[in-house]
Amino acid sequence: MHPTTQLLQEARDKVTFPTQELTKLIYGNEETYETFMKAQKVIASEPSIKNHPDYHNWGRKEQIIKSYEKLRIMHQHLNLANASHWAPMLSLFQGTTPSAVSFGMTVPALRFLGTDEQFNLWGPKFLTMEIVAAYAQTEIGHGSDVQNLETTATYDSQTDDFVLHTPSVSAVKFWPGELGFLSNYALVYAKLIFNGKNKGVHPFMVQIRDNSTHKPLKGVVVGDIGPKLGYSTKDNGFLAFENYRIPLNSLLARYVRIENGQFSRHGNEKISYASMMVSRQLIIFIYPRMAAQSLTVAIRYSITRQQFTNDKREENSVLEYQTQQDKLLPRLATCYGMIFSGLRIMELVDDNFHRVLKKDFSTLQQTHAILSALKAWSSQWVVDTAEWCRLSCGGHGYAHYSGIPAIYFDTAPNVTLEGENQVMYLQVARYLLKVLQYVEKNPEKVPFYFNFVLHIKETLANQSTDFGQLLKLTLTLQLISVAKKIKDNMSTGKSFQQIWNEVVGVQLLSVAQRYAEYFTYLVFQEYISNANPSVKEVLQQLCDLYSLQVILDNPNTLIESGRITVEQFKLFNETKIELLGKLKPQALGLVEAFNFSDNALRTCIGCHDGKPYEYIYEWATKENSVNIKGVPQAVNDLMGTKIKARL
């Protein structure tokens, strides 16, 4: 047996829990797991779409073309209209998955905001990919500020249709995914102008390319915006209209409509949140699993990588060093919390989805707040984790062959897209303050995952140093503090908006993140209580390490309030070290419970059988097209006597 294979096998032998029991929890249900495994198998067995070591030497055009080929083949094997079928693929492919925007954003928006007749008209064509539609909301000049979008859709009473127009460069739609090449339709958000009055921003289903030639229709200017940080295969595009006429039925009309020359509204105007929820839940559900990929690579490599000798004059595996454990194991613990939160959020969004279809909006705001909190926190955490995993792999972590840099690049955009993170946090903070106001007059309105506000007195009086209690206490103290500061400043004559923008902004961001951390703790505990007894101990250790790391990273509130002493803080650090020691022998089992194949990991340093040095040398010498193509002519022109140096 190869020495590094032996090291991994010895590490597997030390794992004391059945990994398959964790696998069941990680994937939520058998259908999702079986689909995930099938997708891994299809991608690995199809030569034309198998992940390739030389991928990052390819040009962007070649990568985009290959991504379309992958989509075509996967469409033959899986039902891509089912989120549980295509969502897992986001973590398996090299590059981003085409049609994810169309299926993950536009279709839900059509279902939420369109009438049944409209969905029946267009919906089936998405399933056959006769229609691929971008979600065209963001403009060059406006992103999160949706209410000030500039694109106009002016109702023409003479022809009973709309004139779609881009009045300025800042009004050009910019950044929508799948708009550059793939989409033949776009869900365009525009200001509806009716009888000369602005009726607000509304969605319009608009054909932008010819069904036969796929060329832009007259009056439509559309294309790809160019290379970006990450998402190299996603054809983010630009879109402008020149007095482009679209039929009356283009306006998604479940909640607003124009009939007999009259404009009317029906239902909750904030329903547009519902369609955005689907894309945000996918960010929370999928991308922590990409962090799990980077952790799998880093932990396997940390076992096979041996550096410096111990007392026995034997080289140590890097994972034996406490500093390496400190880099990786708290993030592994958080990863489990993130994944469980993603599963719970899928349930919350699905419940809200069915309620909204029945015009029940009772859970809309709380679901939006939870999603916003977890989207902001998880997306930044995933990027940071990929970077820490890269650093933990030393020099080889820099190589694309490690598989980690691509995870960083393909997750970094999530910090901004589908809601810029600071904007998301501010929306969470606004809802937390609203829920706090319910306590005195309408306590029955406080949702379950926000019911900590109903127990403020008990929380403040509780002297326990239980980790969950301290997380709740930190959140409670910060919320009370920011609410008091707003009230005190308003008594001086300052406006609420001025206070929000100039006085408490940093505190608002902090309390929103504290909520995300506390929500994750609550869900973590729920999953532990429902887990098989054989894995409860290791899950509780993970939850304790997660909670403790959160407390150690943000202790100021507890210290300033006098709720923990210096001695207690020292004890927390000692407890953390103990947990690192307990979880180190379980680490390999914890990452291998995700069941990523070597092809899915796209790595040569974190393979199931080890051999990092052999694989990285093989990929560099046999798979690297730069070497295969020979010496470039430019090198010959540069070297030798062809340049006369100036002395």
What can you see in these coordinates?
Its main location: other. This is Acyl-coenzyme A oxidase. 54% of the residues lie in helices and 10% in strands. The protein has helices at 3-14, 19-27, 30-45, 60-77, 83-86, 100-113, 116-127, 272-304, 322-357, 364-392, 404-411, 421-441, 456-461, 467-490, 496-502, 505-530, 533-553, 556-560, 566-583, 587-592, 598-601, 612-623, 625-628, 633-638; strands spanning 133-136, 152-156, 161-165, 173-174, 185-194, 197-207, 220-224, 237-241, 244-247, 256-259, 262-265, 306-309, 315-317. The strands form four sheets. Strands 1, 2, 3, 5, 6 and 9 form a six-stranded mixed sheet that branches. The chain has a three-stranded antiparallel sheet with strand order 4-8-7, with no helix packed on it. α6 runs antiparallel to α8. The longest helix has 36 residues, at 322-357. The mean pLDDT is 92.
Output mean pLDDT. Answer: 92
Q: What structural category do the secondary elements indicate?
A: alpha+beta
DSSP strand count: 13
Percentage beta strand: 5-15%
Tally of individual helices: 24
Taking all Cα atoms into account, the compactness measure Rg is 27 Å
Domain Acyl-coenzyme A oxidase N-terminal: 19-132
GO molecular function, one term: FAD binding
Protein name: Acyl-coenzyme A oxidase
Subcellular location: Peroxisome
